[in-house]
Amino acid sequence: MLRQVLHRGLRTCFSRLGHFIASHPVFFASAPVLISILLGASFSRYQVEESVEHLLAPQHSLAKIERNLVNSLFPVNRSKHRLYSDLQTPGRYGRVIVTSFQKANMLDQHHTDLILKLHAAVTRIQVPRPGFNYTFAHICILNNDKTCIVDDIVHVLEELKNARATNRTNFAI
């Protein structure tokens, strides 16, 4: 009984809906097209937000306020002669942090040689692409002499190695 009442009511409603759609074909053919055009046009104003910080951190978060304070008190030299890895802002650069298993002195001869070997291995990296091989020299930051800028710690380690080779004991960093 209930099934027959529901069936009759739904059949009547859908019959009337079909008759209404059939009697107004222009509206039901053009309305979806117009709605699609309007919604599609709204994507012309769409901009992709690439800043993860802007997406995840609140606008007035303590971290942002503290970073602005640090940047105002300790301005960073953003000239071409400095490494971008020295900046406190995110960017496209890489940094390797080297530690010792035994909590040993990283400036001893063994660790200095290992760090310099690691630096040499990184600068010899090549990425073969069709028609061209990219090397470290293609992606590094260049100074005015068109040579790669090297981190200051690498220079210190090279000087330390040279001082050990010449038996200089009063080497100042």
From TrEMBL:
<keyword id="KW-0812">Transmembrane</keyword>
<keyword id="KW-1133">Transmembrane helix</keyword>
<keyword id="KW-0472">Membrane</keyword>
<dbReference type="InterPro" id="IPR051697">
    <property type="entry name" value="Patched_domain-protein"/>
</dbReference>
<protein>
    <submittedName>
        <fullName>Patched domain containing 1</fullName>
    </submittedName>
</protein>
<feature type="transmembrane region" description="Helical">
    <location>
        <begin position="21"/>
        <end position="43"/>
    </location>
</feature>
